[in-house]
Fold this protein.
Amino acid sequence: MGLTAKEIENAKPSSKPYKLADGGGLCLLISPTGAKLWRWRYRFDGTEKMMALGEYMLVTLREARERHAAARKVLAAGVDPMAERKAEAEIRRRETEARPESRPRFARRIRGCRALTPASQPRLIIQLFRECHVEGEERPIREHSEPLWAVSK
């Protein structure tokens, strides 16, 4: 038998964390601080793992069960749900870092810099690389028509 909303609401913190099981490895972890956290315990490649599904009140019982079912489908397909989640987060991070609109803005900022000293050049080059580098795009520096830090008139 699964958890009910009333059981969750009546769950009080104790001196040690404890779990209320819902079934299929899904449980609600009640911490001593009073936080109620959804967790899913599963095994992948012989190792036991625990996946966080959210905090109760932000993630309702129904939503936790939906997330649990979706993660179980991924596991049934032979993919580690935590690895998939991390890969999706990495893709989102790379997309935001390599947005094309940041390149011209950064180049204008460097070109407009009047007080460019030899000491500040390495720092600006590192910033430029971090903001403008796109994985898989290799362009030699000599292909640029002018240095990005050249002072515009």
